Amino acid sequence: MASSPLQLPPETGLFAVSLTLLSFQLARYVMMAGGAFLLAQRWTPAWLEKRRIAKRLADGRQIRREIGTSLLSIAVFVAIGLGVRQLRELGLVHLCTDLDCHGWPWAIGSVLVLLVIHDTWFYWTHRLMHHPKIFRHWHRTHHLSHDPTPLAAFAFHPVEAVIESLFLPLTLLVLPFHPASIFGFQLLAFAMNIYGHLGIELFPASFARHPVFRWINTTSHHHQHHRAVTGNYGLYFNGWDRLCGTNHPDYAATFIRNASGRPG
Questions:
Q1: pLDDT tens, 184-202?
Q2: The dihedral sign for the CA sequence 32, 36, 38, 41
C-alpha cells in the first residue's frame, strides 16, 4: 500500500514529495507497528497475556530481520508512491479533490470499497505467492517469522512489496477516490495488518458464531497461516477463504481456544 501526497501542489519538487512519502511511511510503521510491538512483546498487561498465541517472545535476530525487511518494503512503497504522483500529473488517475464532486457518502463508503478490492487483490496474489516455485524465492522472506510480531507487517521481499503496492495505482486508474479516503484506508488497512501479526487474540470467542463478525479475520487466522504455511490466505475478511475452501480446518476451534485464553 504505497501512500501518495496527492494534495501537494503540482510544483512541489521530487525531493519534497519523496520526503513526504518517506515521513508518512516511517511514522506509520514506527508509531503503529512499534506501539503494537511494545504492547504485545514488552508491556503486555496480564489480561492480554493469557490470550497470547506465540509460545515465546521474539528474539533480537527476528526483530532485526523484521525491521530490516520492512525498511526495504518502505523504500519500495515510496517509489510506487512517486509513480502514483506521476500518474496524477499525467491525468491518468481518478481523483476527487473536491468532496462536492461525489459527496460525503462516497468519500466515506469508498474506504470500504478499497478494503474489499484490496482484500481480493491480496487473497489471490497471496495464493500465487504460495506456489512452490515462487514461495522459495519471494514469499519465504515473510514466513521466516514462524511466530510473527507487529514489526513483520511490512516484512516482505522487495518483489512481493512491489506486487502488494501495485494494487493502489491500478485501482486509481479506474475509480475516483478522495485523497482523504485513501489516507483513511491506508491507516485502517495497516491497523488490521498489524492486528493480524499481533500474536495476541483480541476478539472475543463469540465472534466465531456472530453473523457479521465471523467474516472478519483475526490474529488467530493469520498466525495460524504463518505456522501452517498453507491455508488462511485472506487479509481483512474471511469471505474468499470460505468461498474457496482455504480456511485451515482447525481455524474456528483455534480461534475460540485463543480468544478464551487457552492457547494450545
A1: 999 999 999 999 999 999 9
A2: negative
